[in-house]
Design goal:
alpha+beta
Length: about 140
């Protein structure tokens, strides 16, 4: 059985990391639909499951100490969003540079360019495992 929600989590995480790294150290407005894709709320104003999964991913990354933000604008945007020092350190791959390996952020960008969910899953899983070792 495929766990498509896990694949989407890895893809969302990679997109979030790429967006925040490319603006670091600036604090930005991170729009949920920039990561999830366009969303059309239903007649009751409820967002799609896909959109809400992206929203939950952003919250989870904040709870894990990889990103931070000041406040949330409804379910639409995370204001003053930025990588934490730990998030920046993991994506910059300082340890990898010492070993002459590619930086994790470069691997995320390759996965985004190739549109490979499998490649993104491997890279993000590696980053999250590295975060667990560091804490």
């Amino acid at each position: 059985m495929l766990d498509i929600h896990i694949t989407e989590f890895y893809n969302d995480t990679g997109r979030i990391f790429n967006r925040l790294y490319s603006q670091f150290p600036r604090q930005i407005i991170l729009w949920v639909d920039e990561i999830s894709g366009p969303d059309q709320p239903d007649e009751y104003g409820m967002h799609s499951d896909r959109y809400m999964a992206t929203y939950a991913t952003i919250l989870w990354l904040q709870q894990e100490g990889l990103i931070r933000f000041d406040d949330i604008d409804k379910h639409d945007a995370f204001n003053h969003c930025c990588l934490t020092l730990e998030g920046f350190r993991l994506l910059s791959g300082i340890a990898e540079l010492a070993q002459e390996n590619e930086r994790p952020i470069d691997l995320i960008r390759l996965a985004l360019k190739s549109q490979s969910s499998n490649q993104m899953e491997v890279v993000v899983a590696y980053i999250l495992a590295s975060h667990r070792k560091a804490t």
